[in-house]
Each structure stands twice: as structure tokens, then as C-alpha cells.
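Example 197, ligand heme C.
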Amino acid sequence: MKRIILLLLGVSVLAVEWRLSVDAQQPSADGPRYAENGQLLRPADYRDWVYLTSGLGMTYGPAGAGNPPGNFDNVFVSRAAYQRFMTMGKWPAKTMFVLEIRRADQHVSINNGGYTQGDVVTLEASVKDEGRFPETGWAYFAFGTAPSVAPLPASASCYSCHRQNTAVEWTFVQFYPTLMGIARRMGTVKPEYVDKH
Ligand code: HEC
């Protein structure tokens, strides 16, 4: 009996190891996907990507304005891109970010002070792809509730704010606490970036 159990245990360990090695060989499944008409598809699984930060009532723009406290925003990045950033301090081609904006709610359940995250208000995204977007390198998208969208034109405010105010490439790494140290160590923070204004 003992022997059979040991044998079964051995077989299941082998099966798990095989599964892990198959997974390691799969090309990364996350990142941008496009519809046949070239529009960026709203990713269904971005909450499985890597979480970078949440902001509350940040007043630089998108859906942030309004009565205090404003909305929450949550930033996610595709996993493969995150792993490259951790070793290089730079974003590889086909990096994709999602900015999820959620309502700040009060007095939900037992909570009688502070705010919790409520429904999604809107979803925005950015993609780095110099081949597909040669003019700007990065492209910006506002999904709202749409299943797919075309990039916003280069005249949209997203482009200028992200080009001018970001610590690394066109991304707000200064607000992503686990990434800023990496960028500093790798020397990829833009020379013109300043911490305080
Ligand atoms: C005035 C400046 C400003 C404008 C305009 C702006 N953003 Fe941003 N964006 C930010 C800041 C600041 C953050 C960091 C958010 C945080 O820390 O929670 C950010 C974060 C993001 C991110 C996460 C990845 C990154 O680049 O760091 C995406 C995606 C994004 N914005 C999309 C957009 C889109 C789409 C538009 C245009 C419709 C836009 N943004 C307009 C300032 C701006």
C-alpha cells in the first residue's frame, strides 16, 4: 500500500514539473491584442497582470476631477513587460498599461470613515510599439465601456503630459513605488526628471 502511495506521489510530482516546464515555454499571453480592424481590444484579464499603484483623487486629469475625494485609479502592466523592466529598467516593445478608474464610495457595509473602491468609471490604456505607432512610439486609448477602440490622435493631451512629466520613458514610474528604485539603479530615469515641483 505504502509503495503504491509513493508511486502515485512520484507520478503527480512529475506531472506538475511537466506542466511548469510547458508553461515556461509558452509565449507570454498578456499585452496588447487587436481586432481585425486594428482597434485595441479591451483586455478581459488585466486584473491578472501586475498591479503597480492606486491613486486617490489625483488631479492631473482623466476622470479625476470632481468633488473630493475624486476617483481611485489603479495601474496594471502586462506581466512580461514588468519582468523585463525589473532586469532592464526599461519597457520592452508591446508593453501595455491599463489605468482603471473606480468610484470612491463611503459608508459601505461596516465602513464609517474613509473610502472604498466602487464601480469602474472608465478604463484607459497605453501601448509601447514603435512599429505600429511610428509617430509617437507610445499610443493612448480611452475605452470607456467599449470593447475595442482606435488610438487617440497624437494631439490628445495624454501624449504631451506623458511625454513631459514622466520619470521613465513616457510612464509615471515616479508614482510606482516598487519600480522607481529599479529605474534609479539602472540609470533609466530621465535626466530632466525632478522629484518636486
Ligand atoms: C496632465 C497629465 C496627464 C494627462 C493629460 C493624462 N495622464 Fe495618464 N497619467 C498621468 C499620471 C500622473 C499617471 C499616474 C497615475 C497614478 O500614479 O496613479 C498616469 C497614468 C496613466 C497610465 C498608466 C501608465 C503610465 O503611463 O504611467 C495610463 C495607461 C494613462 N495614464 C493613460 C492616459 C490616457 C489614455 C490619457 C488621455 C486620455 C491620459 N493618460 C492623460 C498623467 C496624465
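Summary: Residues 173 and 180 are 6 Å apart (CA to CA).
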